[in-house]
Structures are given as C-alpha cells and as structure tokens.
Amino acid sequence: MTLTTPSPVNFGAVPDESGRFGPYGGKYVPETLMPALDELEEAYLNARNDQEFMAELAHLQHTYVGRPTPLSYARRLSEELGGAQIYLKREDLAHSGAHKINNALGQALLMKRKMGKTRIVAETGAGQHGVATATAAALLGIGCIVYMGTVDMERQKPNVFRMQLLGTEVRSVDSGSQTLKDAINEAIRDWVTNVETTHYLLGSALGPHPYPAMVRDFQSIIGLECYTQMQDPAEGGPGRLPDAIVACVGGGSNAIGIFHPFLEEESVRLIGVEAGGHGIEDGAHAARFADPERGRLGVLQGTKSYVLQDSDGQIALTHSISAGLDYASVGPEHAWLRDVGRSEYTYCTDTQTLEGFKALCELEGIIPALESAHAIGHVLELAPQMGRDEVILVNLSGRGDKDLGTVMQTLGGGSQ
Amino acid sequence: MSGVERIEQLFGELKRSGSAAFMPYHAMGYPTRQQSLDVIAALAEAGADLFEIGIPHSDPLADGPTVQTATYAALVGGTTVADCLQMVRELRARGVEQPFCAMSYYNPVLAFGEERFAQAAADAGVDGLIVPDLPPGESELLEPACRAAGLATIYMLAPTSTEERIKSVARHATGFIYLVSVTGITGARDELPPGLQGFVERVRRHTDLPLAVGFGISTGPQAARVAEIAEGVIVGSALVKAAGSADWVSEVPTLARQLAEGSHRLAVD
C-alpha cells in the first residue's frame, strides 16, 4: 500500500528508547520493578523478531480467537442517520467478547515462551480484560489472579463469575475508589512483591514502558485487518479507506489498535471518544482531554500523560456508566497523537451513550458493550454531518452481555 | 548549611561514634495534623537521627496497607503538600533539629512544580527528597532543581537491582541510598530477609555513600542486626501503627527507644 502523501511526523519513531512519546510515557515505577520492565522489553523485542513465536500467535488468533473478526456494514443505522455510511469492526465477536483477548493472548504467550515466569496478575475494570486474561491463562495452563475493585465487581457480576469458571482467582480491592485505578495499584503491589515469578498482564496501552507500545502492537491486528477489509468488497468493505475512524478511549487500547495502521493515511480522521459521564461541568466523568481544569500533565501508575487531578496532584475520582472507561489517565500515545494533531478526542455522556446503545440494538441487532456504545453515541452526532458518500469505521470493541444489569437499571428494562 | 551537608554531617558523626542512624518514617497529617507533629516531636526525643516525612498521595503504589491507610486518612483530613511544608516549619520552630527527608510520589511534586517544590521544601527546612516512583533516568528535571536548592536526592535500590542499576543510582544519589530490604511493598515483617547482607555488600562495591535499609523492620533486635551491616535503619509501618493507637503517647516512645537502642547498639557496646 502506498502512502497518499508524505507525512511530516514520523509515527514509526515512537516510543523512543526510554519509552517516550514526545513528552509522554516513560517508566515511573519503584526501583524493584525496573529489572522486570527491562526483562519484559527484551523478551518482547525478541518475540517480535521470532517467526516461530509470531506464527504460533497468528495460529491461535485464527483458530482460537476467531480472527479475522468481520467487518459489518450498518445499513439501517446509516439510513436512519442519513449521512455517512457506517461500518463496524466486530471485535465483539472475538472469543471472550472483546478486543482484550488480542493483548491478553499475546502477553500470556510471550510469558510462556520467552520468560521464565509461572504466574500472571492482572487488573480489570469492566471485567473484559480479566475474562480475556483468565481465558488465555486457562488455554496456556498458567496460574492467574485478577484484581478488581469492589464497585466494579458489583456492576460487572457476570464477568466475575466467568473469570472464576475459567479457574482464575478474583481478588476484590477495597481501597480508594474501588474501581480500575485501585485494581491497578493492587496488581502492581502484588507484582512488586512476587516479581521474580510473576508477570503483570496489563490490559491497556498504559503503564510504564514497554507496555504502551507492546499493547498497541498486539492490538494493531484490529487496524491491520480493517485496512484490508475496508478496501475489499468481498470482505464486506466499501472498497476504500474510511474518512473517519471512531473508537472509545479509556486507557485507549482498542482505539490505538485500530488507529495505528492508519496513522500515515492523512485523509482518515481518527476520533477517540472519552467517557463524558454526567457531563464535564458536573465533574463526574472520565474525559481527560475535555476538562481544562482538572485534566493536566501528570504521572499515574508508571506513565506520564493527561491525568484528571486536583491542584495538589491528587488523582481525581472519575465516573462513567461503563467500568472500562472509568479511569483518570489515558494512554501516552493518545496524548502525543493529539498534541501533534493526528488524532482528535471528544466525549459522550452516559445519556448519549445509552442512545447509541439502544440504536445499535434496535437497528442492527447488536448489543454493544457500554464502552463501545460511547463510540456509537458519537456516531449518532457525527454521521448526519457527513455526506452519504463518506464512510465512518467504528471499532465495536466488545459485546454488551456483561452490561445488561446496568442498562436494565438505568432504562428500567425487564420490568414491563 | 545545605540539606545535603546536614545529612552528610549526621552520617559522619554517627560513623565516628560507631552508630547507625535511626530513621523513622511518619505520615504527615496522621492521625490528625496536630498529633502528627506531636508524634514526630516524641520520636525526636526518643532518639531519632533523621526523619522521613510522608506527603500523602491518593495512589501510593509502593506502600502496604498500614501506610496506605494512614496517608489516606491524612488526605481525607485535608492534608495538602503546602501544609506538609508548613508542618516542617512548625517542627523546626518547636526545636526539632534532625534532618528531614520528604517522601512524596512524583505527581504531587509535578503538580506543585519541580523547581518550586524543591525551593519551597528547602526553605521550610527539608534536607532531602525521596520519590519512590521516580528512578534515575526519569529525574532529569527534579535532580537539578534539588541540587540548586541544596536538597539531597535519595534513590532506592532493591534486591532485584542489577549491577548497572546500582551504578546508575550511585552516580545520581546524594545524602544516602535507600535499600529496600525485600522485593515488595512497605510493611512490618517478622524476619530479616536472608539475602540482605549480600545485597548490602553488592551495593557497597559501587559507592561510598551511607546505606540505609528499610521495609519490614519493626523491632529493636532487628534494628540492631541491620545496624551491623548498614549505616541507617528505616522504620515506617510499625511506628505508624503505634502512632495510630489509642495509647500512642506511651507506645510511640517505647517502640522508638527500642529501635534507637538497636540502631545505636554499636555505641552502647
């Protein structure tokens, strides 16, 4: 594939050797973990250049995960909105229900084949990463412990039970806000304590180097598949590249995974959708880029990025209807791509998200995860502003079975 | 005299007397603002040689349950970074003369402004800075700021640290080096780890700086064993726990005296 125009920014040059994306990224961790990060980086670089490893991963992605995931044309949704034609990348159809398996399987296989470790710890918010990790651990015969905030355990109960069925021990986290951020703190504490035997299977494009780059690379399979599928009508595509790609952004792994192979295609707008919660003015949200007062340069859990915080540098409590986007920081590469003007970010409130959720259920027969419904919520606004000859590609990052409790509570469904 | 010089002077004096330094940690603002000042004053009287004063953070990822609970309570009680520095001023006014090393996670320092923080801390009477989530390599802004303000830049090493990391820390550290005795988080433990002596010796080959050992030390006899191999004994969780007890007025000085005697035992012999 040839580039449409030469790009002024060298997207392939990040991160640099110290793990920086411009001013973002880095390795802000206790000294105990530094050797583990070096070891992980070495193992990962080794695996990436190892054809046998990459072939085994590709084989599992195909025969176990079910990749490539389909590209679906959302005909009725497109007609209803009357603007751009909408295509959905169906990560909800990947085994275990979300894009999270791409990274979980990649890291678990990396640990099994390239590192002398025997135990995995992971954090989870919505439970999708926890389920994906538990799945990969069961497949490869690795012991697994998942930390999850007690608030999230309550709102994502089905996923807690799924992880337990898969043989994973789910440990509840009572500290702080009892959500994703606190689960990460606890997973890191476990990792620091057991670093010699344990790999931390971080679930998003976050944390200290090399995680943001490694997770991005494992998730880039989404965008790579789209690149081919969009141009091939036999694969369900419109026969050309999209004009815009829309993805929800918590830590931002599904977004960076679909964006990355398109970075040098300047005609493709890349739009990340953050969790607007109850609205920016209300303060109860997780829109790091949208809140000029509290969203500032900061360091949280190993990486420098935009962080929602108070004036004293204490991390703000966040809110989102979706547990998976309920996080105070964002992947460092997103912060950099925004700075250099390559990607743009907007947000969707809980209410708009539920509209997106309902629209996809009723018009397309797809129940999306509440995280992914943020992307749909924004498309409801964006598509009508675009021409009928234009194309939007949406990363439908996960399925919504896990969210039925939350949605029923909010919409009052199931009671009639 | 700069903060670095004050710390150097302390370790010099202790070396001449054959003692190790007793270095208690306390969380500023815990259990209340006033009581945290009283606890530190009591520790000063009971034989503390240098203080680590904890500035609370919402996400203390290197701390175990005891310090997490204490710093969280301090935050809920309204403790701010600026007020921590004000408390240092008040302690100096009360006659507490031991060196103070502020321990803060990186984000509060970043939010305050690195240069501004280093200067404000030095002005308040702080002598050194420990930032557990800021290893050398990420401290290219904070280190010159500390140097300009005369603050010691204290880095940590862990049993997992490679020779290369040890050398890097030895190049960047001033004042002393903080050796984390175990892989893990802060918290009292019953036994000293078996590999500790070897770890101390491994670091010693690369530096002349004093070495202080922390994480897991909670009794006088443990302090005495550490004092045989290192220049400083850091005690956190055990004292924080005592400071939070109903009978802290007697528990803190009692435990502190045992720990001080243990640390100073070479002088007693």
What is shown here, in short?
The complex is a heterodimer of chains A (416) and B (269). By secondary structure, chain A is of the alpha/beta class.
Q: How would you write the strand order of the largest sheet of chain A?
A: 3-4-14-9-10-13
State the total count of DSSP E strands of chain A: 14
Query: Overall 3D geometry of chain A?
Result: globular
Helical fraction of chain A equals 25-40%
Topology as H/E string of chain B? HEHEHHEHHEHEEHEHEHEHHH
Percent of sequence in beta strands of chain A: 15-25%
Major protein interface: A-B, 38 and 40 residues
- Stretches of chain B where pLDDT is under 50 for at least 5 consecutive residues are none
Distance between the termini of chain B: 32 Å
Q: Which stretches of chain A are poorly predicted, pLDDT < 50 over at least 5 residues? A: 1-7
Order of helices and strands of chain A: EEHHEHEHEHEHHEHEHEHEEEHEHHEH
Write up what this structure looks like.
The complex is a heterodimer of chains A (416) and B (269). Chain A is an alpha/beta fold and 416 residues long. Chain A has 14 helices and 14 strands. In chain A, strands 3-4-14-9-10-13 form a six-stranded mixed beta sheet, with helices on both faces. In chain A, a hairpin with a 2-residue loop joins β11 and β12. In chain A, α3 crosses α12, α5 (128-140) packs parallel to α7 (157-165) and α9 packs across α10 (253-259). Chain A starts with 19 loop residues before the first strand and ends in a 5-residue tail after the last helix. The relative contact order of chain A is 0.16. Residues 1-7 of chain A have low confidence and may be disordered. Chain B is α/β, with parallel strands linked by helices and 269 residues long. Chain B contains 13 helices and nine strands. A nine-stranded parallel beta sheet of chain B has the order 5-4-3-2-1-9-8-7-6. In chain B, α9 links the parallel β7 and β8. Chains A and B meet through α1, α8 and β11 of A and α3, α5 and β6 of B.
